[in-house]
Specification:
- The protein has a seven-stranded mixed sheet, sandwiched between helices.
- It is of the alpha/beta class and about 270 residues long.
- The protein has a single domain, classed as Rossmann fold (3-Layer(aba) Sandwich), CATH 3.40.50.
- The chain is built from twelve helices and seven strands.
């Protein structure tokens, strides 16, 4: 089973956090702190091959996208039922957001709502392009591991730049890249193998979709977000000015303001943290 970091009251409404590729539960610590201090039960997962979770086996890589989904379903089935509040709410970024959406599509009985931060979009690139991008990402990770002090110094130098890890996040982010099982990168898989617009149309749960307005960086963007909201009334959305793919990092306060309001609307008043 996937490893996790858990914080907050044991009987409180549950938030399950799913990180993006090359990240980890530990790198999600700002969100863990934010929501656990506000009375939520936060369960931040290490995806397979990330953090301290089990490594990828060759046969699992043949169905890597669905394996990401199955791993989360296993955790959700194992979680104790909270004494108050709804079923868990999934909050994901990039690969984690795409995984959360497929989990909700396949097993809506396990989830009450979704928060999707600029999901990775399956079906927008050819298999050969995905492989090239995966190899490039793997090579970048290997380069960071050659000289860890220099890699940390580079992260700290860029800290504060919109979309980049803060100074407090730099070390967990570097640790996450050290722990990454690069076999997933080499497959090119960054999302479960479900075409993105069809996936979004299949969702039947309240969903908040956040994206940025930086063209070439945001995976969803304003135009597609408007289309998705028109096609599916369960989806509401927000375009964060100045953000690219890393919406929270671009403007943490604006991100938490929007997400907190959505979360409060999903929980009965009697169970509100």
């Amino acid at each position: 089973m996937l490893t996790s970091i858990q914080a907050g009251p044991a009987d409180a409404p549950q938030l399950v956090l799913l990180h993006g590729i090359t990240s980890s539960a530990a790198a999600n610590w700002p969100s863990i702190a934010h929501w656990s201090q506000r009375g939520w039960r936060v369960i931040a997962l290490d995806a397979r091959g990330h953090g301290l979770s089990p490594r990828w086996q060759p046969q699992q890589l043949l169905r890597a996208g669905q394996q990401l989904v199955d791993d989360v379903v296993e955790v959700l089935e194992y979680l104790p039922t909270p004494t108050a509040g709804p079923k868990p709410i999934l909050i994901g970024h990039s690969m984690g957001a795409a995984t959360a959406a497929v989990v909700a599509s396949q097993r809506p009985d396990l989830v009450s709502a979704l928060v999707l931060e600029d999901p990775a979009r399956y079906g927008t690139r050819s298999p050969s392009e995905l492989l090239r991008r995966g190899q490039a990402r793997a090579n970048h990770v290997r380069r960071t591991l050659v000289d860890l002090p220099a890699s940390l110094a580079a992260l700290l130098e860029n800290a504060g730049t919109p979309g980049q890890p803060s100074a407090q996040e730099a070390l967990p982010a570097l640790w996450a890249s050290q722990q990454m099982d690069q076999s997933l990168l080499e497959t090119g898989v960054v999302a479960p193998e479900v075409e993105f617009t069809q996936l979004m149309q299949s969702i039947t749960l309240p969903t908040l979709l956040l994206t940025g307005d930086r063209r070439g960086e945001a995976r969803v963007g304003a135009q597609l977000l408007a289309q998705l909201m028109e096609q599916n009334p369960h989806i509401c959305g927000q375009v964060m000015p100045g953000a690219g793919h890393q919406v929270r990092r671009a403007n943490p306060q604006a991100y938490y303001d929007v997400v907190d309001a959505f979360l409060q609307a999903q929980v009965p008043a009697s169970a509100t943290p």
